[in-house]
Design goal:
It is built from 8 helices and 6 strands. The chain is α/β, with parallel strands linked by helices. The protein has a 6-stranded parallel beta sheet with strand order 3-2-1-4-5-6, sandwiched between helices. The longest helix is centred in the first third of the chain and has 19 residues.
Length: 229
C-alpha cells in the first residue's frame, strides 16, 4: 500500500540540470578538466556539488587544497545562480502533480541540492507548504546511488507525521537519474522514473517510467503497490 511519496528535486521538479552542468564545467575548467555533457550525465549528475567535485578531481588525478576546494564550490554556486537569473524553471505538470499528491499522501524531498537553493525555489513557486520533510545535501554523507537520503527522509516523515510507522516498501520515490533509481531500489522503495534527464530505455530498473510528471496521475500510483499488504 502506498503511504508516502519522496521526490527528487533537480530533474524532477526543477528543470535546471543543464545549468548545474554548465556551472560545474566552468568551475573546474581552470584545473584542466574538460567536462563534457555526456560524461556529466553518465556519471556525475546524481551527485551533490561536493561529491561531484571530489570525484572529478579523483578521476582526473587532481589534488586540491582545502582553500581551493571551498573556493571552487563557492564559484560553482555563484555560476549556477547567475545562470538561473531569478527564474523558476519548473517542469511542466510538476506543480499540479505535487498539489494533487499532497492531498492524499505526505510528501518529502530527498535531494543532493543545497537546502537554501531548494527552499528558495519552492517558496518562489508557492510549493514549500506541500512538503512535510526536506532532506538536502547538508543532511547526509553518502550521495545517490546510496540509499541514505531516502531512508533519512522516511525516518523524518515517521518522526513528524506518522503514528503507525511507514515502511520503506510503502514509499514511492520519484527520480530522474540512474543513480537515483538505484538508490531508491536499494532503500527497498518502489520507484517511478521520469525521463526528463535520461531516455526511458536507460531507466528500466524503475518500477514505472513516465515521460514527465505532466503525464503522471496520482490516482494511478496505488497500482504500483498491488499485491503488497
Amino acid at each position: 500500500m502506498l503511504r508516502a511519496i519522496i521526490l527528487d528535486f533537480n530533474g524532477v521538479i526543477l528543470d535546471d540540470e543543464p545549468l548545474h552542468f554548465r556551472a560545474m564545467r566552468d568551475a573546474v575548467a581552470d584545473f584542466g578538466i574538460l567536462l563534457t555533457r555526456e560524461v556529466y550525465w553518465d556519471k556525475y549528475l546524481p551527485m551533490d556539488d561536493a561529491q561531484c567535485l571530489d570525484t572529478l578531481c579523483s578521476d582526473y588525478g587532481i589534488e586540491l587544497s582545502d582553500a581551493e576546494r571551498e573556493s571552487t564550490l563557492a564559484r560553482k554556486v555563484k555560476l549556477y545562480y547567475e545562470l538561473l537569473e531569478d527564474r523558476v524553471p519548473l517542469f511542466p505538470g510538476a506543480a499540479r502533480f505535487i498539489k494533487a499528491a499532497a492531498e492524499q499522501y505526505p510528501l518529502a524531498l530527498a535531494s543532493g541540492a543545497r537546502r537554501e537553493e531548494i527552499e528558495a525555489i519552492l517558496d518562489s513557486a508557492g510549493l514549500r507548504r506541500y512538503f512535510a520533510v526536506i532532506v538536502a545535501a547538508e543532511d547526509f554523507t553518502l550521495g545517490k546511488p546510496h540509499p541514505e537520503s531516502f531512508l533519512l527522509a522516511l525516518n523524518r516523515l515517521n518522526e513528524k507525521i506518522s503514528r503507525v510507522p511507514i515502511r520503506p516498501e510503502e514509499c514511492l520515490v520519484i527520480e530522474d537519474s540512474l543513480g537515483g533509481v538505484q538508490g531508491a531500489r536499494a532503500a527497498g522503495m518502489v520507484c517511478m522514473a521520469v525521463s526528463n534527464s535520461y531516455p526511458a530505455n536507460k531507466l528500466q530498473s524503475a518500477n514505472r517510467v513516465v515521460a514527465s510528471l505532466e503525464s503522471a496521475e496520482v490516482s494511478g500510483l496505488q497500482d504500483l503497490f498491488e499485491g503488497s499488504p
